[in-house]
Outer membrane porin (hydrothermal vent metagenome), 418 residues
Amino acid sequence: MKKTLLLSVVASTMIMAGGDIAPVEPVVETPAPVATGWDFGGQAVVYYQTRDSKANDLFSKEASGAAAGLQVHAVNKDIFAGIGAGFEVSGISDLYLAPEVVSYLVQSANNRVNAEDLLNNRASVDSGAEITQAYLTYAFGNTSIKLGRQQLPKALSPFAFSEGWNVFKNTYDAALVVNTDLTDTTIVFADVKGANNIFNLGNFSEVNANDGVYMLTAQNKSVENLTLTGSYYYAPNVIGTDDLHILWADAKYNAGSFNVALQGGTVKSDGFVNDTVAFGAKAGGNFGMFDASVAYSHVDDGDAGVFNVGGVKTPLYTQMILNQNAIKSDNDTVVARVGAKALGGKFGLAYGYSDLGSAALATDKTHKGSGKYQEVDLTYKTKVFNDSTTLFAGYVYTDDDRMKDSQNLIRVWGRYNF
């Protein structure tokens, strides 16, 4: 937090005593620093990935994408009368890697193709920027209010949350009210009116034609090591005059060396031919430098599936790096994971298998159909430079038997926080 040093000078005074004027020497004092109230920070990110296909090889420009991002924020929790504010600006550039090295941006902020280069049959991209957070806050008693553009956490908003896998997180135009009056209980109400896109931070649009989505979540931690969370979403007039209702529950027990979790719910509307029902379970443990877990999820062939407004991932325990399209609808999925702390960071290995029904999306999202989907994720993540910088490297193998070929993806990024 920036601080301002104030220099106070007590000027000479004159004291009248018996008709004589006696000068008093000036006193120079340096008072304690006074905080401005604003907290500034941000992050700088470089991001690259390449994914092969039948037509394009790994590391070819046609198969590769990249982005460099700079994000800065300013937060003041008490500007006046308890009212706070926060602002965040996110900028994205291709660092002039297109079109020689990569063919697309992994994330943009309303970036445009450079018009002059386009005339010369090039495809370089202008830099772009967007205000990704801008909100006011106010707190009284055990209640806090946040109004404006902001991030939403998956733990409390499982069907409208900010995803962290890309350069920067997606955000929402929303009103958020959090209350903790009840012992060990958090009550959250949200009115979500707009959202940007995880691939384009500048592409803000109305949610449900500005009728919005309303959410009520209750989370309780009264029992040691046990977290119970229940969420209800209501979206009016989603399909004509028919409303949408989502009920979702999650129970996690974490005893440190051992953990288990259950989740499940439904997406319902009178406008659907079939409502969606989904559930899952997970169990895992820690064994010194190693950890391991296994997860299962089932989603039936309902019309909506399981989704995230503004993003592409799911709240399912079986979510991996790339399998979201396979597990959103009409499937049974099992994922096994192991991790090991080594070489100053953590290695991760995950294998997922999905048995897909006729309503399941294919990897390319162009068609649906039954089949099998397999994915292997191998990752390494570490922090360097006094934990100010996070480095990530990942390899992903996918085999969707509804596609002609298996695919390989390599993703690397670095994130410096300041």
In short: Confidence is low (pLDDT under 50) at residues 1-28. The first strand starts at residue 3 and ends at 4.
